[in-house]
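Encode chain A's predicted structure.
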Amino acid sequence: MVQLTQVEDEQIIEEKAPQVPQENDDDYTDTSASDSEDDDEFFQDETIYERIVALKDIIPPTQRSSLASFGSSLSSTLSSLFSKSGSLLWVVTSSALLLGVPLSLSILSEQQLKEMEKEFTLQQTSNEVLAPGSEQAFQQPGQPQSSA
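Encoded structure for chain A:
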């Protein structure tokens, strides 16, 4: 045996349902979006100095005074450190110039003198190789001959 069931059409179901007005999302605004836009406009006009000054209300006076004393001691320490390091650098540089330059010039002149002596001895040995008896020709009569 077959049983029949009545299937209702979707359109008919919608017509029978009570009509609830549909809400349009455009009618509502997102409050977080509008707040952020207002905040952006507010922060664009605010400077960093104004933000730091506004922190005065947040930080207690005891901590503000300790931060101020720390900042002043840090700045005085850094200024004295830079001053002393500059003086030390001046002393080291001037000492290096006053002591180093004459020392390097004397070392250079000593090296040049050694090179000249070396060239002179090479020149003497080359003359002896070319003309072994020429030394005796230049000696004055009456001087003893040196045996080399």
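The two ends are 150 Å apart (CA to CA).
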